[in-house]
Amino acid sequence: MQGQSLQPSSEHLIQVILILRGLLAKPTGDPDVPWEPVILKTISSKEAVDFARDEANAESARYPEPLIKGGKPPLFVTVPELKSDELRKQMEERIARFAAHYGGKPEIVCLRDLGMLYVDREQEDTNLPLHHKVALVTGAAGAIGYGICRGLLEKGCRVAATDLAGEKLDRLAADLRLMAPNRTIPAVLDVTDQESVAAGFEMVSRTWGGIDIVVINAGIAMVAQLKETALEAFRRLEKVNVEGTLLTLAATAHHFIRQGTGGDIIIVSTKNVPSPGAGFGAYSATKAACHQLGRIASLELAPHGVRVNMVAPDAVFGEGPFKSGLWEGIGPDRMRARGLDEKGLQDYYRDRNLLKARITERHVANAVLFFATRQTPTTGATIPVDGGLPDATPR
To answer: I want to staple 161 with a disulfide (CB 3.0 to 4.6 A). Which of 57, 140, 167, 248 is the partner?
Structure first.
């Protein structure tokens, strides 16, 4: 059945899919975007498994749906139990021999006893800058996540919108499907659970062959002065904002290195990193740790062609159907402290920046897209999205 997962599930099989996707990517000659990845789909029907067992089936007049016989036959391979580097070398040699003989890389790869992979060219007729890319967005079911997902889809990207299971994720998935039904999938992913993170990455890899862009957006906040901050409450923020970032960065690093075509990581930071506020200590401290992990990742992953950058918004209330989870949690306290209603609070944050700008999820998405589309050769940098706050200027 088209788009189904290959069986059995294993980390080794995911390595094979990632390596093959990387090896099938097209070199562009552009140092900023050196590879054009392919979308690599799977077929795991009984017909596909049977077809993949025998190389003689390449001469068959009928291929498993939705495939048709083309000018080049499928590449048949057995998946050996090798280390990643050895497996890559073996697959690279097989593809090189195939390309030399048939004048190009294979479009179909048969994995004996497992099923088939094929390059999906369905949406290749677009000039959108991210049309061949796959993105995974954490914490997607809030205002900022929603804006980022929409921005990526508008640029042609395929998007896995991930969040905790529940009504918010379901509504987000329904909304995004209206915009791009064939280029978006929801995925339940808890950034604090290593197995959940791994399962989310695996689901996306099985659906589209791999991931090229990861947006680390999941985060939570609380309002309390340090002298009143309960340790367990602080640990809750630390688990999501710090450990969640670490687990996502680690999974992304392994994924990108195995795939071998670089990648982009964009972390949604906050103006509270350079300019913390009283009563916001737990959030400011844990997001500062998150931000620092991003800077370190930029150092460690640059040799692999991976760029890691941050965007730092301030007071994004949301203008679409999804509210900011952060402001749903802390907004009432902020309003009480200042004697304001919701509109008054939004006006307060607008009026405190130099441009008197109301910051929206669209503005944050635009900053993410600046990095995702690689407008400049930049890594380890931060774009403020705050209308201009002198106190938040890095120093």
So the answer is: 140
Residue 20 sits at the vertex; the CA angle it makes with 17 and 24, to the nearest 5 degrees, is 140
DSSP character at residue 335? H
Instruction: Using alpha carbons only, give the angle 4, 17, 159 rounded to the nearest 5 degrees.
Output: 65
Query: Is residue 39 within 8 Å of 132, Cβ to Cβ?
Result: yes
Q: What residue type is 295 in one-letter code?
A: R
Residue listed under structure tokens 């960065």: 249
Which residues are known to be catalytic?
Answer: 283
Query: In order along the chain (395 residues), what is the average pLDDT of each group of 10 residues?
Result: 46 90 96 96 92 94 92 90 84 95 96 92 81 96 95 97 96 95 96 97 96 97 94 98 98 97 98 92 97 98 98 84 65 64 79 92 97 98 94 75
Q: pTM for the full model?
A: 0.93
Q: Which pLDDT belongs to residue 76?
A: 96
For residue 56, what are the β-bridge partners? Answer: none
Q: Which two tokens stand for residue 379?
A: 């890594």
Closest Cα partner for 77 from 106, 45, 101, 36? 106
15 backbone dihedrals φ, ψ, rounded to 5°: -60, -40
Q: What is the DSSP letter of 355?
A: T
pLDDT computed for residue 37 by the predictor: 96
Q: If residue 268 lies in a helix (H) or strand (E), which one and from where to where?
A: strand 263-268
Distances (CA, A) of 197 to 39, 169, 256, 368: 21, 16, 15, 21
- pLDDT for res 326: 62
181 preceded by a cis bond (ω within 30 of 0): no
Q: Using an 8 Å Cβ cutoff, are 357 and 350 in contact?
A: yes
Residue 224 has what pLDDT? 92
**Rounded alpha-carbon distances, angstroms, from residue 273 to 88, 387, 394:** 40, 16, 9
Q: Is 114 helix (H, G, I), strand (E, B) or coil?
A: coil
Q: Which domains does the chain have, with CATH numbers?
A: 11-119 (no CATH), 134-388 (3.40.50.720)
CB contact set of 39 (below 8 Å; sequence gap of 6+): 119, 120, 122, 123, 132, 134, 158, 208, 209
Helices of type H across 155-243: 167-179, 194-208, 231-238
CA distance 204 to 230: 38
pLDDT of residue 346: 81
Per-residue b/e over 25-56, b at no fewer than 16 CB within 10 Å?
A: beeeeeeeeebebbbbbbbbeebbbebbeeee
